[in-house]
């Protein structure tokens, strides 16, 4: 019997099959990943109550003697249900575990989480609307930004407060940067409202074109560049033009003392005067 019970049990690999952990913002996505697993493994009955727990004891009467024995179906059900409960616990964040700490079955834990995150309430609706309003693109990619917005819109729909498609479009367009101004104007000029999927596609294409556009790099400040253009001078225009340019001879830049022309002229005149005096004395 032990082998039969073991082969009928289904174990969910949370790490591989349900990697998304439940937090206070992603209940819909988290629920979806488990619903597909429950349906695929034929475990949905444990969650929705269509496969209730069988009786623990079975009775049999033989020769007017009633005997009770443990129901093997009960053991199978308990073990399978606990494996489902373990998968649910392993797929939620530690701060949420206390909410289901007293749940004895997977169905009890499932209903507690649904009541906490999917039950319509005025406070919850206001909270999600506030989270949607505070969402901004910032440095997020178009895909990440739109996924965040769509998640909040879907959550509001589940809570019975769906957001109008045009209002959702306006929210997205308002949070785009100036670089998307051309696309924003084109969308706003349309006569018919654009769908979320079409807007997503157009934004992805526009984002790709922005990334492919080379950015110009300014090497000099504008004032310095303007001064260079207006002056029309060489960067070495302050160099003394009377000094020899040793760059033309491959030497280092040096300044050499120049002979004093006034001094040599004075010496030449003194020599002529001396010669003249000598001849006169003759």
From TrEMBL:
Pfam name, any one: Retrotran_gag_2
Compositional bias ranges of the Polar residues kind: 225-263
Region (Disordered), start-end ranges: 223-268
Superkingdom of origin: Eukaryota
PANTHER family: PTHR47481, RETROTRANSPOSON GAG DOMAIN-CONTAINING PROTEIN
Protein's recorded name: Retrotransposon Copia-like N-terminal domain-containing protein
């Amino acid at each position: 019997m032990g082998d039969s019970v073991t082969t009928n049990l289904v174990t969910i690999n949370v790490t591989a099959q349900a990697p998304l952990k439940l937090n206070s913002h992603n209940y819909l996505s988290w629920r979806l990943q488990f619903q597909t697993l429950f349906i695929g493994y034929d475990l949905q009955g444990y969650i929705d109550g269509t496969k209730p727990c069988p009786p623990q004891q079975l009775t049999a009467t033989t020769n007017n003697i009633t005997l009770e024995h443990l129901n093997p179906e009960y053991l199978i059900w308990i073990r399978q249900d606990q494996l489902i409960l373990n998968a649910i616990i392993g797929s939620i964040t530690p701060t949420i575990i206390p909410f289901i700490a007293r749940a004895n079955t997977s169905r009890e834990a499932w209903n507690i989480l649904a009541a906490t995150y999917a039950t319509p309430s005025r406070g919850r609706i206001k909270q999600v609307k506030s989270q949607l309003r505070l969402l901004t693109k910032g440095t997020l990619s178009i895909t990440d930004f739109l996924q965040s917005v769509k998640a909040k819109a879907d959550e509001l729909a589940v809570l019975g407060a769906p957001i109008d498609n045009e209002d959702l479009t306006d929210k997205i367009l308002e949070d785009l940067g100036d670089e998307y101004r051309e696309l924003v104007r084109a969308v706003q000029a349309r006569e018919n409202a654009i769908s979320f999927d079409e807007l997503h596609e157009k934004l992805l294409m526009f984002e790709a074109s922005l990334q492919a556009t080379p950015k110009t790099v300014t090497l000099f400040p504008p004032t310095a560049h303007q001064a260079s253009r207006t002056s029309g001078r060489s960067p070495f225009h302050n160099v003394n033009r009377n000094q020899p340019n040793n760059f033309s001879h491959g030497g280092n830049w040096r300044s050499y003392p120049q002979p004093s022309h006034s001094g040599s002229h004075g010496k030449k005149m003194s020599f002529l005067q001396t010669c003249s005096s000598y001849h006169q004395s003759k």
